[in-house]
């Protein structure tokens, strides 16, 4: 193995050599059937890997690492290797943490063609300890499949730790890969049965046998370069680089869609979107807010019989203009004591005059939203009118009566923006915790600025913005504001139906917040798509009592 130092980028390196020669390979294979050794207090690792690492540690590595730590106390440590070197890299990263020399947040682990290294306890400890740990696997590489998960001799079970990055191709430049969300089951490379030694010796379209014969350093540098490329989007942007949405790499030399804001870093939502629940529960909820109290309860009776209307609130939310006529905003609350759910549902824009007020207001001003950015003035004032017009007292009463209930918040169009504000408001006001709130909106316009949207998406695990095909409203207000030159952003997570939204329709769970992705790729926009969601005409749906779909 070698160590290395980069004083410019403040990086220390530990890189371990792969299996060298058939004799060593034979020793490894035979050792799989011999024994394991206790690794500190966190499970067992294979004896060969343990003894090999201890030989290196006592042979000069310990003193070298302690010297480097003394000279460069705040540097990151990058640990890497291929094959046997991959297993030793896993052990080495773990060892320097267990020895108290480095903390886990300073260590990055990146391996290629790693065999299973330890048992369940070791693998679990490793993946819960290191935030940055990637096991790259090439196609049908045989080595990650050994030793067998189920050991025939001692009947123990051995496991890989996270995170596998699987290239199911030749790994040439631009090749796709899969970041596997599971650790070691019948997923990703473990689905392969036609295994290959050739794939083990070829990584990133490079014959590693040739590389090793020329120079071990070249291999190490190559792996470390890829390690840097696989830096997370957030870390990449914090380092003032760009992250490529196409290749999912940091500073990709060829990139059509670069991510420059952390809010757009791709990631899966922390909750699961349910299409059936959206149709059968959420749709009637925002349908009910579009009508009066009698028809609202009929909406519930037809679709969610245990849900009961609690309060219907109607207030004057007009722009203070001497010319325009009065306009109103409405919302309702409801309670289901069986499923322990409270509801806040906000009505959409309901007149042409109100729509004009909203559009004109987009060019006027924004207002501070607590300590988390700015939201559009019209949305702020409309929500405050509802809050002061009975909503505050209603929510405090409901919280007092049903302290452990979930709160479902929803709305369509203007109601969607008010739902976003409302969910945020009751959290900021200290009434409810974010983990007790579910937010689902339909056809939501941009509601606030970058700071508001970033706070929102980092606060709520369950927050979905459903967008129908070419719906025009999610495209407004414009992201770049012409008046104050601010940038407005949607918060996560967009659910985009690029179809008619009939039952069984597919949808995209969009991993970015608000860039050139999903519905933002559409230029041919539609008002009709805005008024039709889940194959339902929302203009008359609530007034008809939200007839149940057959």
Written overview of the protein:
The chain is about 35% helix and about 20% strand. It has about 550 residues and is an alpha/beta fold. It folds into two domains: about 1-205, Alpha/Beta hydrolase fold, catalytic domain (Rossmann fold); about 275-545, Rossmann fold (3-Layer(aba) Sandwich), CATH 3.40.50. The strands form nine sheets. An eight-stranded mixed beta sheet has the order 16-17-18-21-22-24-26-27, with helices on both faces. It has a seven-stranded mixed beta sheet with strand order 1-2-5-6-8-10-11, with helices on both faces. Helix 2 packs across helix 3 (about 85-100) and helix 12 packs across helix 13. The termini are far apart. The model is unreliable at about 150-155 and about 210-225 (pLDDT under 50). It comes from Caenorhabditis latens. This is Fungal lipase-type domain-containing protein.
Describe the secondary structure blueprint for this structure.
Elements lengths: L1 E5 L4 E6 L5 H10 L4 E3 L5 E3 H25 L4 E7 L1 H15 L8 E6 L5 E2 H10 L3 E6 L19 E2 L4 E4 L10 E2 L18 H4 E2 L2 E2 H7 L1 H14 L3 H6 L4 E2 L13 E2 L15 H14 L4 H11 L4 E9 L11 E9 L4 E6 L5 H10 L4 E3 L5 E3 H25 L4 E7 L1 H15 L8 E6 L5 E2 H10 L3 E6 L19 E2 L4 E4 L10 E2 L18 H4 E2 L2 E2 H4 L9
Parallel strand pairs: 2-5, 5-6, 6-8, 8-10, 18-21, 21-22, 22-24, 24-26
Antiparallel strand pairs: 1-2, 3-4, 7-9, 10-11, 12-13, 14-15, 16-17, 17-18, 19-20, 23-25, 26-27, 28-29
InterPro entries: AB_hydrolase_fold (IPR029058), Fungal_lipase-type (IPR002921)
Organism: Caenorhabditis latens
Protein name: Fungal lipase-type domain-containing protein
């Amino acid at each position: 193995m070698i160590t290395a130092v980069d004083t410019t980028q403040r990086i220390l390196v530990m890189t371990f050599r792969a299996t060298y020669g058939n004799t060593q390979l034979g020793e490894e294979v035979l050792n799989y059937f011999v024994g394991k050794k206790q690794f500190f207090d966190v499970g067992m690792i294979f004896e060969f890997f343990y003894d090999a690492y201890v030989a290196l540690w006592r042979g000069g590595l310990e003193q070298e690492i302690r010297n480097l730590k003394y000279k460069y106390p705040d540097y990151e440590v990058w640990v890497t290797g291929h094959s046997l070197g991959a297993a030793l890299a896993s052990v080495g990263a773990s060892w320097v943490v267990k020895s108290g020399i480095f903390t886990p947040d300073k260590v990055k682990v990146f391996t290629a063609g790693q065999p299973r290294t330890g048992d369940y306890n070791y693998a679990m400890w490793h993946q819960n300890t290191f935030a940055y740990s990637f096991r790259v696997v090439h196609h049908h590489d045989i080595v990650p499949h050994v030793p067998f998960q189920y050991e025939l001799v001692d009947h123990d079970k051995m496991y890989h730790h996270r995170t596998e990055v699987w290239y199911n191709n030749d790994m040439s430049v631009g090749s796709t890969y899969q970041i596997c969300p599971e650790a070691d089951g019948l997923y990703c490379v473990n689905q392969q049965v036609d295994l290959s030694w050739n794939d083990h010796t070829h990584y990133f379209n490079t014959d590693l046998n040739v590389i090793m014969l020329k120079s071990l350093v070249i291999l190490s540098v190559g792996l470390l370069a890829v390690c840097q490329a696989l830096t997370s989007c957030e870390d990449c942007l914090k380092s003032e680089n760009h992250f490529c949405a196409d290749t999912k790499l940091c500073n990709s030399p060829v990139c059509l869609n670069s991510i420059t804001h952390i809010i757009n870093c791709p990631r899966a939502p922390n909750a699961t979107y349910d299409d059936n629940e959206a149709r059968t529960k959420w749709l009637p909820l925002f349908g009910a807010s579009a009508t009066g109290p009698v028809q609202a309860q009929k909406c519930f009776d037809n679709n969610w019989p245990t849900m009961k209307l609690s309060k219907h609130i109607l207030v004057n939310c007009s722009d203070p203009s001497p010319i325009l006529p009065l306009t109103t905003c409405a919302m309702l609350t409801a309670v289901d004591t069986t499923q322990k759910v409270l509801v806040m549902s906000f009505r959409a824009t309901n007149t042409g005059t109100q729509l004009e007020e909203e559009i004109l207001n987009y060019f006027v001003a924004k207002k501070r939203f607590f300590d988390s950015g700015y939201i559009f003035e019209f949305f702020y004032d409309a929500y405050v009118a509802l809050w002061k017009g009975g909503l505050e007292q209603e929510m405090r009463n409901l919280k007092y009566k049903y302290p452990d209930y979930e709160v479902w918040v929803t709305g369509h169009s203007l109601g969607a923006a008010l739902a976003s504000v409302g969910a945020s408001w009751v959290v900021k006001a200290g009434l409810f915790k974010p983990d007790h709130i579910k937010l689902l909106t339909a056809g939501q316009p941009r509601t606030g600025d970058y700071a508001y949207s970033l706070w929102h998406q980092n606060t709520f695990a369950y927050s979905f913005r459903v967008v129908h095909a070419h719906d025009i409203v999610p495209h407004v207000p414009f992201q770049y504001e012409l008046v104050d030159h601010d940038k407005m952003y949607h918060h996560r997570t967009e659910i985009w139906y690029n179809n008619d939204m009939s039952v069984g329709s597919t949808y995209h769970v969009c991993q970015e917040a608000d860039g050139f992705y999903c519905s933002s790729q559409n230029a041919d926009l539609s008002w009709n798509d805005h008024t039709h969601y889940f194959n339902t005409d929302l203009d008359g749906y609530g007034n008809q009592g939200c007839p149940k779909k057959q």
